[in-house]
Amino acid sequence: MNLVYSYKKGKNMRTVNMHEAKTHLSRLVDAAAKGEPFLIAKSGTPLVKVTPLETPTGKQMRRLGFLKKASFKIPKNFNSLGRREIEKMFDRSR
Q: What pTM, to 2 d.p., does this model score?
């Protein structure tokens, strides 16, 4: 395992070779998720940087969609709507 200087963060970053990454992937990903990013190198050349995802929490989370405040009712026969038309399309007796 090597340490490579990360110019963006201004600190040394752990570098693992491809074989070590495959062998210890679960452990490495757990460490990255806890804030310890690392690089995966092939033949000594860094190829990939593994960092934790920045997931929104609490008020940062936004609900997608246009029905935030809309109210609507689903008809009681919703599951049978269009049944005859669909049966006609797949009727093999013709």
A: 0.51
Q: CA angle, corner 72, sides to 69 and 73, nearest 5?
A: 150
Q: Strand 45-50 to strand 38-42: parallel, antiparallel, or no bridges (unpaired)?
A: antiparallel
Q: Give the tens place of pLDDT for each residue, 34-85.
A: 999 999 999 989 999 999 988 777 776 776 666 666 677 888 999 999 998 9
**14: nearest Cα among 34, 35, 40:** 40
CB 39 within 8 A of CB 15: yes
Instruction: Label residue 14 exposed, middle or buried (CB < 10 Å: 0-12, 13-18, 19+).
Output: middle
The helix/strand count (H/E) of the chain reads as 3, 4
The three state secondary structure string of 2-33 is EEEEECCCCEEEEEEEHHHHHHCHHHHHHHHH
- Which tokens go with 51? 């960092």
If 0-12 CB within 10 Å is exposed, 13-18 middle and 19+ buried, where does residue 13 land? buried
